[in-house]
Structure formats: structure tokens, C-alpha cells
Amino acid sequence: MEGHTEHKDDIPLGLQVPTLVFAFFICFAFGGLLSALLVGDMSETGNARLMAGISNFTLFLLPGLIFSVFLYRKSWLHSVDAHRNTSPLSYLFTFAATLGALPLVHLLYFINKKIPLPDYLTNMDEGSNALLSKLLSTESTWEIIPLLGLLALLPALGEEWIFRGIIQKRLGGIIQNPHIPVWITGFLFSLLHFQFQGFFPRFFLGLFLGYLFLWSKSLWLPIFAHFVNNGVQVFIFVLGNEETSPEIDEPILTQPWWLISGALVFSTALYFLKQLTVKNNETKNVT
């Protein structure tokens, strides 16, 4: 019986790094050109959403796809471990863990906001929150469907392809300790969002997503978790009352019973998820 085998990466980092940088440069220029041609008055919600869609696609997903297809050709899915999947039960535990993490994420965000920051960083965050409010402003609950694509699916695919599939996997190939690539990638994931009032909660999410990728050996599990995390927040905002804000000034989810419940769900789901994914990978490697 032939078992599961790892796909060997024969392409040197000396070629991979400049290819990724060049892909980012080309896609950034392409995104700017598209925005100039297609996007009108940014005060209009439709134009703001179009701009966000172009940015999400050209900043992460497109350069990631160019990198994988150009360098790996027919093995482009192997390049980010998107060629393999994991068990349906793994997705169930991931869903539970992602929901359980929400109160912890909100608490970290609330604490993070209390840390004094230079005015220019605070202004950057305020601008980001204002744009997010505009993107999420709706006249009909049916608008939640395209918003899930814009704010949950596109970021989940693009950011996970780059951060977990490309960066974390390459770091894992040159660093023996498997935890270090997870932490480095989680740090970069948070830092490169340039939203410093949310640095700690995003770092926490980056670690969560990184360990999902490490344990499952599949890019689809962190993509799913990323989508659920963003999607739930879209639902909360759109289906909430008119006073709902993307900022957390009065964090309901940081009440003690929410935190305790969330921590229990998160830790329990994560424990069983790790056991399940590791066992599945051991079974695949049996010859």
C-alpha cells in the first residue's frame, strides 16, 4: 500500500523571494491602475466597496497565485499545501474554536485600545474604522451576501495563501523548531495590517491560524477559520442595531461569563482538533 508523501520543494529561496516581491510590485501597480480606471467618488458606498475588492484581490490573492503558478506550474496547489484536505470533523472543531475565541479576541482588542499610541498611528486606525463602517453600511440585509465575499472570503483566501501557505511554509523549511515559523508569521500577519489598535488580537488570531496550518498540513483549515472569524463579525454588524460599531468601546463579549464560556469552548475544541488532525496525518503517512 502506498502512503502519503510530502511534496519536495526543489526551488531555491533565492528565486522564491524575488519572485514574490516582484509579484507584489506588479499587482500593486495593477491594482492602482484598476482603481484609477474604475473607482469614482469614494464617499459613495459602492465605490468604496469596489476599491476594497480590488485591494483585497490585488494585494494578496493575485500575487500569491502568480507566485505559485509561475514557479510551480502544475504543482501550484502543492506549493501552499492546498492540494490536501482534512476530515469534516476537523472543520466542526475549527468552527467551534473560532467562535469560542471571539470573546478573547474582543478582550485583547479592548486592552490594546487602552495602550497609548502616537497620533499618526491612532489616525491611521480611525481612518480604517471609518472605511470599515462605510463598507458595512447597508440598506438591506441581503447585502450581507456580497459583504461576506468582500470582507470574509477574499481576505481569507488571499491572506492565508500568502501568510500561511507561502511565508510560514517556507520558514518551516529552514527552521527546525515548528513553533518559531508560526510566531514569526503571526507577528507579520498582524504588523502588516497596519492597524495598531488591533495588533494584539490580530496576533492572537495569526497564532491560531498558524497552528491550524501546522497541525492539519492543509491550507483549507486556516482559510475556513479566517472566513468564519470575519464572517461572524460581518453578521454581528449588519444584523445588529444601528448603533453597532466596528470598534469595541463597550465590549459585551468581554463580560466574565462570555470570557469563561469562550475560553472553555476554544480550549476544548482546540484540544480535540489537534488530536484529530495529528492522528489523520499519521494515518496518511503510514505505508
Present the secondary structure layout.
Elements: H1 13-38, H2 45-72, H3 88-113, H4 119-136, H5 144-174, H6 179-191, H7 199-216, H8 220-239, H9 256-284
Helix pairs in contact: 1-2, 2-5, 3-7, 3-8, 3-9, 5-6, 5-8, 6-7, 7-8
Structural account:
It is a single chain. By secondary structure, the chain is mainly α. The protein has one domain (84-284). Helices cover 73% and strands 0% of the residues. Helix 3 packs across helix 8 (220-239), helix 5 packs across helix 6 (179-191) and helix 6 runs antiparallel to helix 7 (199-216). The longest helix has 31 residues, at 144-174. It is globular. The model is unreliable at 1-5 (pLDDT under 50).
Core attributes:
287 residues, mainly alpha, 0% strand, disordered N terminus
| Total count of strands | 0
Largest sheet: none
Overall radius of gyration: 20 Å
- Portion in strands: under 5%
Question: What's the shape?
Answer: globular
The percent of residues in helical segments reads: over 70%
- Between the first and last Cα atoms, what is the distance in angstroms? 6 Å
pLDDT under 50 segments (min length 5)? 1-5
Tally of discrete structural domains = 1
Mean pLDDT: 87
Secondary structure class reads mainly alpha
Total number of helices: 9
H/E element sequence: HHHHHHHHH
